[in-house]
Amino acid sequence: MVTWFNRALRAVGLRRIKNESNGIPTGSMDFGQLMKWIMSSSTLDRDLHGQLDIQRREARRLARENPLVKQYLHLLTTNVIGSTGMRLQAQVRNNDGNLNKIMNDRIEAAWGEFWKSPWADGRLSGVHGEHVLLKAVANDGEAFVRMVPGYPNKFGFALQMIDAELVDHSYNSARTGNDNEIRLGVEIDSWGRPVGFWCWSGFAGQGIDRKRIFIPAAEIIHLYDPDRIAQTRGVTWHYSIMLPLKMINGFVEAALVAERTAACAFPVFKQSDLSDIDENAKDFKIELNPGSGFTLPAGLSMESFTPSHPGDRLGDFIKAGQRFISSGWGVSYNALANDLEGVNYSSMRSGLLIERDRWRVLQEWWIDRFRTPVYAEFTRCALLTGALKLDSRDPAEFSAVKWIPRGWLWVDPLKDVNAAVISIENGLGCRTDYLAEQGRDFEDVCERLKDEKLVATAAGLDFSNAAVTAKDVNKQTEADQTDPEATPTLARKNATRLFALNALMNDELFDTQRLQEMVNLYRTEE
Fold first, then answer.
1. The whole model's pTM is what?
2. Which of 158, 254, 420, 500 falls 20 to 30 Å from 349 in CA-CA distance?
3. 496 within some domain
4. Is 507 among the domain residues?
5. Domain coverage including residue 428
6. Shortest CA distance to 382 belongs to which of 111, 88, 183, 54?
7. CB 223 within 8 Å of CB 133
8. How many domains does the chain have?
9. Rg from Cα positions in the chain
10. Is residue 491, in this structure, part of any structural domain at all?
11. Any idea of the CA torsion for 396, 158, 126, 447, to the nearest 10 degrees?
12. CB burial class (10 A; 0-12, 13-18, 19+) of residue 15?
């Protein structure tokens, strides 16, 4: 039918012009290039074959230059990994079902020593390396970690980061006979399971003769969050916000040009009467100085040129765009834009709870995809080298571990602590779960409370009568509401001590000096 239509057009002297822009308005070169990333009519792997490099380069550029992207990466690493990383809690049990404290302590001590410097290049600590990996996953859409058994260190094991650019996405091969399919540099079997990864031995342009090498899938941890079924490679997490960011940058640039133009008010001289014009008016120029005047030659009149300002639409446009972008990343607008204007307790709490659910999902994903396989290989290698001495050489017997990711303090500590106390008192919750919500370990808290009691006993103090119950807090809260100027009661003092102790226990190390300062404060109050 198209051919018939073309013949009809030629018969009347016309011809059909192909739309090379795929529906994109003519002249929108930059916008058109962006749309080439977005428009898709085939499998995601096929699209990524020609777009993976483009997306990765643009995402890395945004991570270097754009403050919103930098803020997101900061929020991501801070909330998922945290400052101290995820803590290992070994939970190996004896035959009677009780925890084997000796073996658990050995496992935790060995892991802690290994995690101080687990990378083969020796440049980063374990936690800092996780920050780099997580940012790579967000920027590139994926990260690759090679597990290196037999590495020459105490544990016979190390990790190596592999840049996503080195996994050759241009290497593709169909399945033929007994040969597996290679898709975007990943060799897969008939079930789609990765068999290995084809990687370059070095970066292009380094002046070396690089070659493509095969690394078995058993040695590689491929970190990515697939969006579609059977997706082989990862897509940058900035994909959905690239176009909104470009629109914001364009609007800001236009507003800046308009503001600079509006600031350039200057006089314009107009020839009013050509018959009466003075010879000096032909090339009349003046230099304006504050407080000075001038006389116009005959035949010239002066008009002012004052461009209008663009108005106050810039702030509203940027705010709307940033809200759009925060939704694409799944974070709260207030945290991303550092904008607390008009925020109240209810909206802040609601936004934080929704955002924290997203962080918890990523924490569990990180534990499942990275921490768990690394720990399994670590125990196997450490048992073989003798760096980890346990009752058996079978690593499967010591796989029972729990990872405690970072948590968050409550939005309103008084109300939330009170609710926790009531829940525990009525058997609706336990201390372990409530402490875990803040990224703290119940056993560790018990050990620190034990140390605290020893220090207090040595100082001749007894905190047994300083306990705060939910009823005490409720009673004092009602008294504060009826008489805000009332003298602080014992319940309020005890509540103050409770939160001070809570802050103390949140520190990474038990600080005896700070505890002694609190003891002295307690003596003063008494």
1. 0.73
2. 500
3. yes
4. yes
5. 409-526
6. 111
7. yes
8. 1
9. 33
10. yes
11. 40
12. exposed
